[in-house]
């Protein structure tokens, strides 16, 4: 699954620079995660870095973007142009 940022986000700016895929950006009211770029940090880290640094615990799995670990690895390879 990709991750998502809920409306509990306080716009603290700590998650955006931690994303190795540049999937996080400032939205209209809170930060947002591009589901096409989010790999839950697979290929980069053992755990999602945005979740690790979030001080308010507002980054759950996105129930609208269910992906297997294999699909996340494929997305990682596509994003980094590795096959």
UniProtKB/TrEMBL annotation:
**InterPro entries named among the record's database cross-references:** 4Fe4S_Fe-S-bd (IPR017896), 4Fe4S_Fe_S_CS (IPR017900), PSI_iron-sulfur_center (IPR050157), YfhL-like (IPR047927)
Pfam families, per the entry:
Fer4
Q: Provide the 4Fe-4S ferredoxin-type domain boundaries.
A: 1-29, 31-64
Q: Which GO terms describe its cellular component?
A: cytoplasm
MF-aspect GO terms:
4 iron, 4 sulfur cluster binding; metal ion binding
Organism field = Sinobacterium caligoides
The protein in question is named 4Fe-4S binding protein
Sequence intervals crossing the membrane: none
List the NCBIfam families.
di_4Fe-4S_YfhL (NF033683)
**Keywords of this entry:** 4Fe-4S, Electron transport, Iron, Iron-sulfur, Metal-binding, Repeat, Transport
């Amino acid at each position: 699954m990709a991750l998502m940022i809920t409306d509990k986000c306080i716009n603290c700016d700590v998650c955006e620079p931690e994303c190795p895929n540049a999937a996080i950006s400032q939205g209209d009211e809170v930060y947002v995660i591009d589901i096409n770029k989010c790999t839950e940090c697979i290929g980069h880290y053992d755990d999602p870095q945005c979740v690790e640094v979030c001080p308010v615990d507002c980054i759950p799995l996105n129930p609208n973007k269910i992906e297997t670990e294999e699909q996340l690895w494929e997305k990682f390879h596509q994003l980094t142009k590795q096959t």
